[in-house]
Amino acid sequence: MEGQRLREFGLCEGASVEALHHGGLLGRGPLAVKIGRMTVAMRRNHAAAVEVSTGPQEAQV
C-alpha cells in the first residue's frame, strides 16, 4: 500500500530526489524529501526501504 502511494507521488526509478529535512530531535522524526517538484514527509522505516544512487553529473559548460 505505502509503495503504491510513494509511486503516485512520483518516487520511481529515475526520479529526482533531494533530502530537505532529516527529522526532529535525535533524528527520530519524519524525513522531508523533494520528489520532482513535490515535497513529501516520510516515516524513517519507509525511507529505509528506498534505494537511492547518484546519477551522472551534467556537463559543465
UniProtKB/TrEMBL annotation:
Molecular function per GO: transition metal ion binding
Record has Iron as a keyword: yes
Domain Ferrous iron transporter FeoA-like: 4-53
Keywords: Iron
Protein name in the entry: Ferrous iron transport protein A
Organism: Sphingobium scionense
Origin organism lineage: Bacteria, Pseudomonadati, Pseudomonadota, Alphaproteobacteria, Sphingomonadales
